[in-house]
From TrEMBL:
Macro domain mapped to chain residues: 1-174
Organism annotation: Isoptericola peretonis
Protein's UniProt name: O-acetyl-ADP-ribose deacetylase
Gene3D superfamilies per UniProt: Leucine Aminopeptidase, subunit E, domain 1 (3.40.220.10)
Pfam families: Macro
Entry-linked NCBIfam families: PRK00431.1-6 (NF001664)
Length: 174
């Protein structure tokens, strides 16, 4: 599996699946979540409302993941995951690791071969970019070791140079 780090706009990446740093309501929000909902169009919100109406009436738990179609995005799928909110006392790094691992599980179930992640938890949820980078890179490497050949490519598409540098450092230390 190729692991790629880049600075850019997750909503424009041509991969099988992108990962949304969602909130538990799945009904849109700010940051990456808002950008993905805007780029995917109104059918994404309709699909998320259907998930809430049927299988996730209480919302998506922290560290879990679920997929919807990508609609107007270049990606066929959006995999929604809820990162832990440090400001709300969710400080267990294993919850971050779970976001990445569960998202890859969902991608494999979809038979996706290429997946792109943002820095889940590094925005308004208060996690330091270094912590997210270490958790994300370690989770992807561990998942790939346990599922060899399941994915061709995982990208981290990051929103700024400081976050990209944190991921570069994490990748270099593995």
């Amino acid at each position: 599996m190729h692991l790629i780090l880049e600075q850019g706009d997750l909503t424009t990446v041509a991969v099988d699946a992108i990962v949304n740093a969602a909130n538990s309501s799945l009904l849109g929000g700010g940051g990456v979540d808002g950008a993905i909902h805007a780029a995917a169009g109104p059918r994404l919100l309709e699909a998320c409302r259907e998930l809430r109406r049927t299988t996730l009436p209480d919302g998506l738990p922290v560290g879990e993941a679920v997929a919807t179609p990508g609609f107007d995005l270049p990606a066929a799928w959006v995999i929604h995951t809820v990162g832990p909110n440090r400001h709300a006392g969710q400080t267990d790094p294993e919850l971050l690791v779970s976001c990445f691992g569960r998202s890859l599980d969902v991608a494999a179930d979809l038979r996706a071969r290429t997946v792109a992640f943002p820095a889940v938890g590094a925005g308004v949820y208060g996690w330091a970019a270094d912590d997210v980078a270490r958790a994300g890179v370690a989770a992807v490497r561990s998942w790939d070791d346990a599922n060899p050949g399941a994915l061709d490519e995982v990208r981290f598409v990051l929103f700024g140079p400081a976050v990209l540098a944190a991921f570069e450092d994490a990748l270099a230390s593995v």
